[in-house]
Design a protein that fits this description.
By secondary structure, the chain is α/β, with parallel strands linked by helices. It has one domain (about 20-174): Rossmann fold (3-Layer(aba) Sandwich), CATH 3.40.50.960. The protein contains five helices and six strands. Helix 1 packs across helix 5 (about 140-174) and helix 2 (about 65-75) runs parallel beside helix 3 (about 95-115). The chain is globular.
């Protein structure tokens, strides 16, 4: 079991989110957990300068649907980063394995092919208590961690865009 507090990070290493837009896709399954993850992510984005009107929240029915929701949001809302928030709790069948594998591979594929970073904020736990511990409980909030990652990746993307512009200008000039 992890003993890392998911809400602890170095504030100095997080850029300002003042001019950034974010999409957050939230699974309706395990709502007690996913809403707590959303609150953590939303408040962390605000604490780093994001404006509430620049944070778009959408729901999908379950964790498996997060991939489609993220792809749609990345293509339509002008987000600098998209955060997916879900929770899958181990049950008695292999359903857990298929859902976790599907969403993980789906989000990885979006990041490999897309222009907009998609941040994986999905809890995959053995029981509900482990999920609650990671959604604002004794181990912090995975939503906080996802928001910090989103800010950092949006800033990374912006630096890459600027670098491409500079390189194109140099090439055109020479």
């Amino acid at each position: 079991m992890s003993t890392t507090n998911l809400s602890e990070y170095d504030l100095k290493k997080v850029p300002s989110a003042k001019k950034m837009r974010f999409g957050i896709v939230v699974s309706e399954w395990n709502t007690e957990v996913t809403e707590a993850l959303f609150e953590g992510a939303f408040n962390t984005l605000l604490n780093h300068g994001a404006k509430a009107e620049n944070i778009v929240k959408e729901y999908v029915p379950g964790t498996f649907e997060l991939t489609f929701g993220a792809a749609s949001m990345a293509n339509c809302c002008g987000a600098d980063a998209v955060i997916v928030l879900g929770c899958v709790v181990q049950g008695e069948t292999r359903h857990f394995d298929f859902i976790c594998q599907g969403v993980t591979q789906g989000i990885a594929a979006l990041n490999e092919k897309g222009e907009t970073p998609v941040i994986f904020g999905v809890l995959t736990t053995e029981n509900l208590q482990q999920a609650l511990d990671r959604a604002g409980g004794k181990l912090g909030n995975k939503g906080d961690e996802a928001a910090v990652t989103a800010i950092k990746m949006a800033a990374f993307r912006q630096r890459q865009k600027e670098s491409r512009k500079v390189n194109k200008l140099r090439k055109d000039f020479l």
